[in-house]
Amino acid sequence: MGRYDVMKKSITVGVIILLSLLITGGIMAKPYLRSVYYRIRGQKTVDDVINSIENDVKNKLDPEFNRAGVSFPPKRITFIALKQERELELWVDENNEWVYVKTYPILGLSGKSGPKLKEGDRQVPEGIYKIAGLNPNSYYHLAMLISYPNDFDKEKAKKDNRTNLGGDICIHGSNASAGCLAMGDEASEELFYLAVKGGIDNVKVIILPYDFRKEKNKIETEDNNLEWLPELYDIINDELKEYKN
Known about the structure:
- It is a single chain.
- The chain has helices at about 5-25, 30-40, 45-70, 150-160, 185-200, 230-240, and strands at about 75-80, 85-95, 100-105, 110, 125-135, 145, 170, 180, 205-210.
- It is α+β, with helices and mostly antiparallel strands.
- The chain has a 9-stranded mixed sheet with strand order 3-2-1-9-5-6-7-8-4.
- Helix 3 (about 45-70) packs across helix 5 (about 185-200).
């Protein structure tokens, strides 16, 4: 065995030992260390993620759900993202009634008030969306892709003769964002877990510029000269009627 092979074998053994220590020592409970582990090990599946975070997430969320008087995990979920407040509310369906559970701070949020119009504008979309996919190997720890552009976005873009609307808008970990909602790694694990357990088809995402329930007569457009913006905000406002603390 040559000198290079010996060094390579030593490094491999060292990595294996380090990973074993991380796992057996309980350090895998730390989100950023889990990220390091998976990047060394290679691509992970959604099941890999759920198996590694389940105990930790359940220990955090069980008391919150008990306090709200709702079942865990929930069957239907709504995330309400408030751009001005930099908050994301978690609501769950209990016996066909939406119940508030908790609020997460949004750590990274780019752009300004108003909807996303094109690729590269760094805007967080505004509207009513679904979870379109899950990325357990995101550079930003964990990511959930939202269904931007939705039918409303596409219809108004066609009317405005806009093309290249952009995409790949996610709710993810870390604290950096370019049109996405960066929630931090620990919060992203809770949200990811809930989406998986509830089923992504049962998750609704409502994103709006500010909390219409508190300032419903205010329409904030900033630099957007969009004649259809009041229509969008009326749709969102109607949707919010089911979500009252």
